[in-house]
Amino acid sequence: MVTAALGDPDQWQAQVIPLTAEALARKCTAIAAYQSQVSTFFSDTADLEAKVGGYATQVGGERLWQPHR
To answer: Could you tell me where the beta strands, DSSP code E, fall in the chain?
Structure first.
């Protein structure tokens, strides 16, 4: 289904954009503004911050996917 929408996965490349602590906090605040996001994907805002922060640490920031040029 994803392949049908996006095409060949080899045609995409990831770019990692480092996030400052302030940027990560703002991202968490933005996600938390949508209560349905918190209740659907996280147990509470502390869980949201832990999971989003953990992912950012694991990846090295924010992963942005772009088509190869």
So the answer is: 12-17, 62-67
**What are residue 19's phi and psi, to 5 degrees?**
-115, 130
Q: What is the pTM of this model?
A: 0.79
Beta bridge partners of 47: none
pLDDT at 45 over 80: yes
Q: Give, in order, the Cα–Cα distances in Å from 12 to each of 3, 41, 46.
A: 11, 26, 33
List the chain domain ranges.
2-67
Asked whether the beta carbons of 17 and 60 are under 8 A apart, the reply is no
Rounded alpha-carbon distances, angstroms, from residue 61 to 3, 7, 40, 43, 47: 25, 25, 23, 23, 18
In the chain, the amino acid numbered 50 is A
